[in-house]
Structures are given as structure tokens and as C-alpha cells.
Design a protein that fits this description.
The complex is a heterodimer of chains A (about 280) and B (about 375). Chain A has a six-stranded mixed beta sheet with strand order 6-7-8-3-9-10, sandwiched between helices. In chain A, about 35% of the residues lie in helices and about 25% in strands. The two termini of chain A are about 40 Å apart. With about 375 residues, chain B is an alpha/beta fold. Chain B has a four-stranded mixed beta sheet with strand order 1-2-3-4, covered by helices on one side. The longest helix of chain B has about 45 residues. Classes of the chains: A alpha/beta (about 280), B alpha/beta (about 375). Chains A and B meet through helix 2, helix 3 and helix 10 of A and helix 3 and helix 8 of B.
Chain lengths: ~280, ~375
């Protein structure tokens, strides 16, 4: 039976292996204009965690991501990145905060007029005073990290979807940020490339201690990589579950969460039962 | 495989009509039944319509739509509708179509609602849109002014490589079309004016006409129009595509200003290249004019002397000052429209059109402003 989700207690995460909270979201109300998509939500992301933001289509995952990465201001509430308030910082402080994280966009967002190495070098050129040789070395190192060192002089248009995503991770890592935001990393990738990308994320997280915040609805990927997830619900405009994906799949008592993790459709009505016969009849 | 076919036969007893369907009610057979059956039902107005579907062998969505249409027709006349014998395999689609509820076709719209409500809503929407556009345009001008000031104070912050690359596309690659149109304009203008002026023996003054009109008005104006169509649209398309593919968002989250990073190099290119292209336009326009006068028997030196005596340095500089401003405006409008690109397949095309139209309108308006200003300044 479906429970009253607003009355469900959000589970407190207890991940002692991870450090202090590096992202703190407090009483965030998110949306556009007068439209509220998420109302008064709070959560923390701990240092070194691979954190997933999940939810159905239109639940507000991307809207929250845009608030977190400084693209769209929230309607209300506060976002602290490494204890600094993102939306109340002055331009100079804000720039410092922005340099603490990197973002990989769903469409990779590599600059089409630049080669891969120029793409990765760009943040270094803009925010450091390193000599060109040093910047090139760093950029090649980052490309090597994602397995694209042999493609440094290629244009983004010459790469496959998976390679573009890896290159985007290399660019996001250029300034050695502590946090990486990934927007739908597996979207549009074949299963093998998707798994390879998952392994890359785990490797970067475990070897460099980078915190990952991943917005996705790819369950296979989430079960492989995420330490902890929150599930957004568009009906209650809030977080209805918080915990490890395995725990939520097996032990959640919230109807939507169980159906979400076990891929159970919303309704199974009589019409669906008849559909097969009808299709046969139409032929 | 046999061709699908259907037969529909009406049988009447009193006020009851029975329609017997046999065969395949499919997308290929429904069109010929649609109008004929509805027409007959409208003419005969049966109080009760019974559809016998027991001998239907196949029925797809269009067949179900026809069944629903008959049902709707009866309901609108408050008459009875009965469907008999529909096989179980077709009931899924039939139930689905019942839940869809087709209504809009029968709703009559009031004359006044059509006449008043729609235009009023349109005017209101256009007004709100224009206020919002003005707001974002003012914000863009503010950002641009700040970025220009910042670039003047910190020239190293400008991406000169991008600026030169853009200048090559805007200037070097455009000179041929500019030269061609300049040459043809000079040629046509002088030829069209020389013939009537010749009747009065005044054809030598064609040089004055061509020189002054090119240097003061047509050179800067035509060059700006061509650049609005060529480079303004290219800027809008480039930036629009970057916006759609999240590249502009990527810059923002890297802490880089899209205006400083993307707009300034393009504006530098268009502002520097427009006066240079204007000079090319003027020069080739003069060549066109000279060619006509030479064909009329005047030596080149006479034409040149006439130009030198008629056109002053002020005329040249006045035109070039205009062209600098036109270049700035064309580049800015192109970039502004590009950065305002929304999502969707047609968004980039829409931005490009707006950039060209906006560029031409602003240049034409500014040319009028310059004419008045130059008049009062005695230039």
C-alpha cells in the first residue's frame, strides 16, 4: 500500500567511512518563476562519497543540480559548498567556490572549436599563471587519467559519445576540484561504455578522494557506483528516501521507492492485459 | 495477401438504423466510409443506431475512431448508440478511445470570443514578451559595457586568438562579396544617373554624386547590412548552438563570463572589420562609377579630380565613424540573440533570423540618428 510520503521519516545516513559534509543543502526551495518543484529540502553530501540524486522524470533532479552548480538561483534556502554559501558569496568568493567543483554535462559540452587538450587546458589558462608547458603536462595527465591521452589533438567532433563524456570528466578535473557533478553520465551510451564510465568514476573517487554528485535515473549505474542516494518525489515535492541503493531496494517501506528500484510500473490495469490481444487483432 | 476491404450496409426499421460491418475496418478502408456514413446518419437522424461489428475481421485505431465518431454523433443528438458483437481483441482500443473523450469538434466557439478574446490575449502576450525582452536587452548592454571596460583596462583578459580568428571570418572571408556589391552599386548608380544628367551636359557631376553618397551613406550602410546577414547571423548561430549544447553553461560553472569569453572577441572582430570593409566597398564603388564615366569618354584623371574636389576627409571619416558603430551594433545583436537561444529544434534558426532582422533595423535607425547629428554638427 502507498503510504503518506510526507509523514515518512527521511533516513539518516550513517556512512562513517566518509568525511565531513562537503555540500550542505538547507531548506532549499527549487523551481522556476512561481513554479515550485522541490519545497524545503535539506541534505548533506560527505567528502569522498559517490552521491546519487534520483527521481522520476520531472521530479526536479536537473533543477536542483542547476542550483548546486550555480547556474540557476534557488527560490529559497541555502547551499554550502565546503562551508561557503554559494548564492550569497560576492563575485570574488563565488569564483573561488566555483573552482572547488567541476561539472560534466549530459551533452559533454566540450568546446567544439578547440582540441581536447585545449579544452582541458582552458580552466588552467584562465585561472592560473602556470607556463604553457606545465599546463600541457597537466592537461595530458588528466587525459591519460580518463584514457584519452592519444586523442589530445583531436577535435570533439571526432570522438564517440563515451569518449566525449570521458573528455568532459578530464576537463572538469583540470583544476583538481574536490567535487564533481555529473549530469546523466550514462545517458545515450551503450552498456559496455556505460560500465567503463562507471569504473572510471569509482577509480577516480577511490584513488583521488573526489566527491561525486550524480544526477541520473540509470539504475544499473547507480547500483554499481553510488554509496548513497536520495530519491526525489514530485508529488510531495520533497526527498522521500535517503540511503544506500541496496538498502532502499530491499528494505524501503515507501511504495514509490520500492517500485522505482524494482522497476514496477505505476498501474497495471485491465487495458494493459488486453493490449496484446488487440495488437494481434489489428494485424 | 488479400487487400483489406469492408462493407457497411444500413438497414432501417422505424426509427432504428442497423449498420452491419463486414471485413476489415482499417486505415485503408475507413476514409471511404467516414463521410458517406456520417452524411447518411445526419440525413436520416435515427433515434437508435445499432452497429453490428460481429463480422469485423480486423479493426485498427482508425476503425475505432470511426466507431467513436458515430457514437459522438448520436450523443450530440441525444439519440441512442449501441455497439454489438465487437470482438474482445478490439475492445482494448475501443476502451482506450472512450477514455480519451473526443469533444472539441462539436464545441461551438462564440463569435465575440473569436473576435475579442484572441487578439486581446495576443496583444497582452506580446506586451509582456516585449517588456521581458527589453529587460534582458538592458541587462545585456550592462554586462557588455562592463566587459568592454574590463577588456580595455585588462587587454590580456581578451582572447585575442579567438578575436583574430573571428576577424578572419568576418573580414577577410567577406571582402569578395563586399567588393562585388560595392562595384555593382557604384556602376548602377552612376549609369542610372549619368543618362539623365547627360541631357544637361552635367554627367561629370556623377562623380560627385557617387563619391558623396558612397562615402557618407551607402558605403557604411550597405556594408553593415551585408555583415548583419553574413556575420551577425553566424554569431547568433554559433552562440545559439553552444547554448543548446550546454557549452555556455559549462563556461558559467567554470567561473568564466560568457560575455567576456564569447562576445568580446566577436565584437572586437566586427567593430574592427566593418570600417575596413566599408573602405573596400567605397573603393570598388568608385571603380564602378569610374568605369561608366570612362565609357562616356571622360579620362580617369578627370573623374579622380572631380572626386577629390567633391569629397572631403570629413566625409570619409564621418562614414567610417558610423561604420564602427554599425559593426559594434551588428556584432552585439548577433551575440545577444545567440545567447538568448532557447531549447528545441527551431531555436537556433529563430535566433539567427532575429539577429539579421534586428541588426538591419538597428543599423537603419542609427543611420537616421547619425544623419540628424551630422546635420546639426555641420558635417
Amino acid at each position: 500500500m502507498k503510504k503518506n510520503k510526507s509523514q515518512e521519516k527521511i533516513q539518516e545516513s550513517n556512512h562513517s567511512e566518509f568525511g565531513e559534509p562537503i555540500i550542505q543543502v538547507r531548506n532549499l526551495t527549487s523551481g522556476y518563476g512561481n513554479v515550485v518543484i522541490m519545497d524545503n529540502i535539506s541534505f548533506d553530501v560527505r567528502k569522498g562519497e559517490i552521491f546519487g540524486i534520483l527521481g522520476g522524470s520531472g521530479s526536479g533532479k536537473s533543477t536542483i543540480l542547476k542550483n548546486l552548480i550555480g547556474l540557476n538561483p534557488p527560490l529559497a534556502g541555502k547551499i554550502f559548498i565546503d562551508n561557503e554559501n554559494l548564492w550569497e558569496a560576492n563575485p570574488k568568493e563565488r569564483l573561488k567556490i566555483l573552482n572547488k567543483f567541476g561539472v560534466m554535462y549530459q551533452q559533454s559540452a566540450l568546446f567544439g572549436s578547440m582540441t581536447l587538450i585545449e579544452n582541458v587546458r582552458l580552466p588552467l589558462e584562465e585561472f592560473t599563471k602556470l607556463p604553457l608547458d606545465a599546463m600541457n603536462t597537466i592537461a595530458r595527465m588528466k587525459l591519460k587519467m580518463v584514457g584519452l591521452d592519444n586523442f589530445a589533438d583531436h577535435m570533439p567532433s571526432e570522438l564517440s559519445g563515451g569518449m566525449k563524456k570521458r573528455a568532459a570528466i578530464a576537463r572538469a578535473m583540470a583544476m583538481d576540484p574536490g567535487i564533481l557533478f555529473l549530469d546523466e553520465p550514462s545517458a545515450g551510451l551503450d552498456p559496455i561504455t556505460s560500465v567503463e564510465l562507471d569504473h572510471l568514476i569509482i577509480r577516480l573517487s577511490r584513488s583521488l578522494g573526489v566527491t561525486f554528485v550524480i544526477v541520473t535515473h540509470e539504475l544499473a549505474s547507480i547500483f554499481t557506483i553510488a554509496d548513497r542516494v536520495i530519491v526525489l518525489d514530485k508529488e510531495t515535492k520533497g526527498i522521500i528516501a535517503d540511503g544506500s541503493p541496496e538498502d532502499l531496494k530491499d528494505h524501503s517501506n515507501i511504495d514509490f521507492v520500492v517500485r522505482f528500484f524494482n522497476r514496477i510500473p505505476t498501474e497495471k490495469n485491465e487495458l494493459d492485459k488486453k493490449s496484446k490481444k488487440s495488437r494481434m487483432g489489428a494485424k | 495477401m488479400a487487400e483489406p476491404h469492408v462493407s457497411a450496409v444500413f438497414q432501417y426499421s422505424g426509427n432504428t438504423a442497423e449498420l452491419k460491418l463486414v471485413g476489415d475496418l482499417q486505415i485503408s478502408t475507413v476514409p471511404k466510409l467516414w463521410n458517406s456514413t456520417l452524411l447518411e446518419l445526419n440525413l436520416r437522424n435515427p433515434i437508435r443506431l445499432v452497429i453490428d461489428a460481429s463480422q469485423l475481421e480486423s479493426c485498427d485505431a482508425s476503425g475505432i475512431a470511426l466507431l467513436q465518431q458515430w457514437k459522438l454523433l448520436q450523443e450530440n443528438k441525444e439519440a441512442e448508440f449501441m455497439l454489438r458483437g465487437l470482438k474482445e481483441e478490439f475492445t482494448y482500443l475501443y476502451d482506450l478511445s472512450t477514455s480519451v473523450q473526443i469533444r472539441e469538434k462539436w464545441e461551438e466557439k462564440s463569435f465575440f470570443s473569436e473576435l475579442i478574446d484572441k487578439p486581446t490575449a495576443e496583444i497582452g502576450k506580446k506586451f509582456v514578451d516585449s517588456v521581458s525582452n527589453t529587460h534582458s536587452f538592458i541587462a545585456f548592454i550592462g554586462e557588455l559595457t562592463y566587459a568592454i571596460g574590463h577588456s580595455i583596462l585588462n587587454p590580456r583578459s581578451v582572447r585575442w586568438k579567438d578575436a583574430f580568428s573571428s576577424a578572419e571570418k568576418t573580414g577577410v572571408n567577406a571582402w569578395i562579396i563586399i567588393a562585388l556589391i560595392g562595384f555593382l552599386l557604384g556602376l548602377i548608380m552612376s549609369f542610372q544617373s549619368a543618362i539623365p544628367m547627360r541631357k544637361f551636359g552635367a554627367e561629370i557631376f556623377v562623380a560627385n554624386l557617387v563619391g558623396l553618397s558612397l562615402f557618407r551613406e551607402l558605403g557604411p550602410l550597405m556594408t553593415a547590412f551585408i555583415l548583419a546577414g553574413r556575420s551577425g547571423s553566424a554569431y547568433a548561430a554559433e552562440l545559439g548552438t553552444m547554448k543548446v549544447s550546454e557549452e555556455v553553461d559549462a563556461l558559467t560553472t567554470m567561473g568564466l563570463s560568457p560575455v567576456q569569453f564569447l562576445v568580446i572577441p566577436r565584437i572586437i572582430a566586427s567593430t574592427l572589420m566593418t570600417p575596413l570593409l566599408t573602405m573596400v566597398f567605397n573603393l570598388l564603388g568608385l571603380v564602378g562609377g569610374a568605369l561608366v564615366l570612362i565609357s562616356f569618354g571622360y579620362p580617369l584623371v578627370t573623374f579622380t579630380n572631380q572626386i577629390v574636389s567633391a569629397v572631403s576627409a570629413i566625409d570619409l571619416i564621418g562614414g567610417l565613424v558610423k561604420s564602427v558603430v554599425f559593426g559594434l551594433v551588428v556584432g552585439s545583436i548577433g551575440c545577444y540573440e545567440g545567447l538568448r537561444t532557447t531549447t528545441g529544434a527551431g531555436a537556433v534558426g529563430e535566433s539567427t533570423t532575429k539577429a539579421v532582422v534586428g541588426g538591419i533595423i538597428y543599423v537603419a535607425v542609427l543611420d537616421g540618428v547619425f544623419s540628424v547629428a551630422y546635420f546639426y554638427l555641420g558635417i
